[in-house]
Design goal:
This protein is of the alpha/beta class. The chain has a single domain, classed as Rossmann fold (3-Layer(aba) Sandwich), CATH 3.40.50. It has a five-stranded mixed sheet with strand order 1-3-5-6-7, sandwiched between helices. A two-stranded antiparallel sheet has the order 2-4. Strand 6, helix 3 and strand 7 form a beta-alpha-beta unit. Helix 1 packs across helix 4. Bound molecules: iron/sulfur cluster. The site of iron/sulfur cluster has 12 residues, from helix 3. Pfam families: Oxidored_q6 (PF01058). InterPro entries: NADH_UbQ_OxRdtase-like_20kDa. One of its GO terms (cellular component) is respiratory chain complex I.
């Protein structure tokens, strides 16, 4: 199977926390599939998300799926979801993860990751803003 970027899964990479929200016990993992992964990276480089202490025990892990899911990559998404330990939620970042985006009618593209994994939050846009990503994470945690 092809290699894809997978950051933030505990034991398989870096986890992130929302900057300036120490009471928000949510860790964030990113499954980067296409250009929306750049927006996730932008949230990190702009300081909206920060690397979490690897020994930290979060109350929930949010798996962010950022980009276009092809049928060939669906086993990777399933494996990433199964690798998340404890309470967990999936966030679909951007139009492609939500519905296939501009490639919805391609034979190769899945019309939304919710046909593969349960999605708790959708962030619209092509691309979405990093601030919208962080707002959705905070909302998933039940905070505001
Ligand atoms: S929604 Fe737009 S920016 Fe995001 S992966 Fe799809 S084409 Fe790229």
């Amino acid at each position: 199977m092809p290699a894809i970027e997978m950051t933030g899964l505990r034991g398989a990479g870096r986890t992130y926390a929302v900057t300036g929200r120490p009471g928000l016990h949510v860790s964030v993992a990113n499954l980067g599939l296409a250009c929306c992964a750049v927006e996730f990276g932008s949230a990190v480089t702009r300081g909206l998300l920060e690397p979490a202490d690897p020994t930290w025990e979060p109350e929930m892990t949010v798996l962010v799926v950022s980009g276009t899911l092809t049928h060939q990559l669906t086993p990777h998404l399933t494996a990433a979801w199964n690798a998340v330990v404890g309470p967990r939620a999936v966030l679909a970042l951007g139009a492609c993860a939500t519905s296939g985006g501009p490639y919805w009618d391609s034979y190769a593209v899945v019309e939304g990751i919710d046909s593969v994994v349960p999605v708790a939050s959708y962030v619209p846009g092509c691309p979405p803003r990093p601030e919208a990503l962080v707002a959705a994470i905070v909302s998933l945690a039940g905070a505001s």
